Amino acid sequence: MTKKSILFFACQLAWLTPFAQEASKVLSWQDVPKWEYVRMNGATPSPDGKWLAYVSGPTEGDLTLTLRHTQDTTKFDYKIGGATTPIFFNQNAQYFSFFENQKFSEIKANEKSRRPSSKKLKIVALKDTASVTFDKVQSFSFSNQDSKWVAIRFEGQNPGVSPAMGGATRPTDVPKGADLLLYNLITKKKYNLGNVSEYSFNKSGQYLAYIIDANGKNGNGIFLMDLNTGISNALHNDEANFSRISWNKEGTAFALLKSKTDKKYKDPVYTLLGIKNLKAHNADVFTYSGLDENQITAGFGISQNANAYWSKDLKTIFFGVAKLEKAEEPKSTEKKIDDIAKADAKKVAEKDSTAKENAAAIQKDSTQIANNGPKTPSTPKKPEVNKKDLEKPDMIIWNWQDVRLQSVQKNRLQTDKNYTTMSAWHVEENKFVSLADSAVKSISLAPNQTVGYGFDFKPYEYESNLNGQTYGDLYIVDIKTGQKKLALKKLYLNASRSIRFSPNSDLLLLHQDGHFHVLNTKTLALTNITQNIPASFVDMMEDRNVEKAATSSFGFTADNKFVLLLDNFDLWKVSVDGKSANTLTDNWKSKKLMTTGVNYIYEDDEFIDLKKDQYFGIYNHDTKQKGVALLASNSNKLQILKLDDINFGGIRKPKNSTNLFYTIEKSNVAPDIFVASDKTLSQEKQLTNNNPENKKGVLSAGSKLISYVTAHGDTLEATLYLPANYEEGKSYPTITYIYERLTYEKNNYSQPAYPGGGFNRAMYTNNGYAVLMPDIKYKLNDPGMSAVACVVPAVKAAIATGIVDEKNVAIHGHSWGGYQTSFLITQTDIFKAAVAGAPLTNMISMYSLIYWNSGSSNQSIFESSQGRLTTGYWDNWDAYVRNSPIYHIKKVNTPLVIMHNDKDGAVDYTQGIEYYNSLRRLNKPVVMLTYNGENHGLMKEVNKKDYAVRMMEYFDHYLKGKPAPDWWAKGVDYIDLPKHLEERAF
What we know:
Keywords: Hydrolase, Signal. Residues 1-20 form the signal peptide. It contains 17 helices and 54 strands. 20% of the residues lie in helices and 32% in strands. It is globular and about 80 Å long.
């Protein structure tokens, strides 16, 4: 070797050494807040596709917004403080905007002291990066197609509602108006409007509708400004509150609500306002209260809980109505005083009378004693109690005939109070029509808005609430008259709730009895369009107690001629009359390929237009590879563009560009954003760098797919995630993480974080663990036994690879995974340690308990959902006992940590208590962690951190031989608990 080559080799080693050291770095939980990554969710391309803006930075800390050009290396960074920000470009892509927040430390300090954090709005010109900043901004909006203006609403003493919130109002006299600034992006001129509570540009950006809400309601109303002239006009003034501006899609009309207090009613009474025929400085205003016209059903009025909006033909306004609660009749002051005086006088008289009677009785007894000796004294008379003075009992009556449990009714009380009945006002005829009613409670409108459909669940609601099997009578509703026609009786909705209108509104696509059907909304004729297709449209992966569950559909094509349907693998183009059917895939069943979804990349398209290029997500059921396929315009076959060991994010196309944006990630490679300038994605460019050299290999060496045969004879797969710095031939301690089928996520990336369920894959693989995630296939009436039949062979197959150390395998699961964990350790000793989060442990006692997060019973979950049992336990006793961990508890030999919170609204806290106490009674090693006030998963950051650390300490002890933590090795005195927790605090 020459000196020159030796020198070159030495230099290369010197250059690589720091990265090799970094790659071998073991992360602690204290390192998680410093972990830096790109926030994929908020990344935004410009409308012309030339720019991309995204936020990056540490998990906890101050962040950076990056603006970069998509075709060259031009890049600009902006510091945005300790919180992420929405990113907006104006429609002509000449400006973009974002919020600058306070520093992370300041935001946290504000949270502790319960002070609001303020933010600044920065608007940047893309041509030269010149910028302007506005302080204490509450909301803002660009002027849509016009692209010349931005409206900026500032923080006020009584902040109102931003357009993004839908204009919801609070029934209060406190004014919600604040300053609204109109800033011209071209001239840089500013115009201030005071006391604005809500605002919205129309589509073209020519008009700004805004609401004034001022002190004393002085000048309140709805205003319209023509931005071409700068002239603003009051369309409607009143001493009232206005809210919920809603423009039509074309931006030619809008509707809103007005409310005023009325002594007759407890809540404000609402009036509907419709504005159309926009003129130079004016518009036509239509008002409707329903009270004056006496057309709304007696006792009902316009609801504040639903937006009002125009029909496409601008002849009808749709809105909601709700019950009006009448106010109690107020008594006059004189009458109140008189009533109080009379009541007091009566009480005094009764007291005096009773005192006199008691005195007389005592005197009588004294005389009797003097004359005849001692005698049992008379019992003094008790004052009479006014029944009205008694407090009402604080109780609930549960009746077996209740359609919904009292707990459900209580849980949904506010929702029911806010329920609105969808209605229509036909403006030209001044005619009110109630579309929904107490039976058919919601209506889905067809594209032409002349017809709709809805379900009547009432005949089946009681039974459905018991067993979870849901049926509904399907009605077709005439929007003009409100007339309802019964189309289908007792449609089974567990199989599919996906019902789609055709573009011309004449047809409905639905699934029934294992086939797709088309319903004619005019004749109610039902046509089975898949009966002659040699494929199954029943989901092969559904193993719950559901009859003939549907495969997926993508609905009607834009030309109204076809529907796109999936069998379990191939994609079919089927004529709406069912007479022709062709596959758009080339016998994908033989390749185990399937389409998983369509990318809706044309924002104005309501249906799939086969005259345009369409992109579909694809997945290989056997290899777990993912990718994307192209259905080129006017083509009849999908072309596979990418299929690999990746997770491919959906394609996004900016409105005014042919550029296509998407993300790609691997199990050990963080997602990055790519752009392609051609439709086949061959001209691809990476725009972000979420995987710098110093992070490669830090978290994991990748993933491996393992095939195994279950005890039931099924062939399934499991993903084995390799530890960082994995060495072939070496065995590693392994965590088995379970839920249901998990291999679909084989190529999903995991980054360090504090999870609500305690387990973070990235932290374990970084710390030298392998992680095994097997698929579980279930047999009805044997959920627990099915888990054993699948998980144990998966673990043995993983051990056979040599990667998993058979003496150091643990298991963890949360919720349903927690149940299976607690059950598995009653059936096998293959695991050295276990952690069960929020576990169901006794199927019999759990069956009739309440799912408090919804108020419903668990019975329906057991009989039609995850429980996978077919009846109640009284008719299926052996299955319930056979699959309940508690009934096999004597066989537990595995140390166990249970995490179960006292406010768990999904799996009742008593399930964890029952298992813990039983194991304790048997003197089995068990610890239960209860985070007070937490629900089914952890929400408080401090609790997430604590649980994550304890879980790893526990696994490190059993699988790596590290010293046992005190909380596990020793008992904990309640009096010492605060000190114990303080010592462990982050």
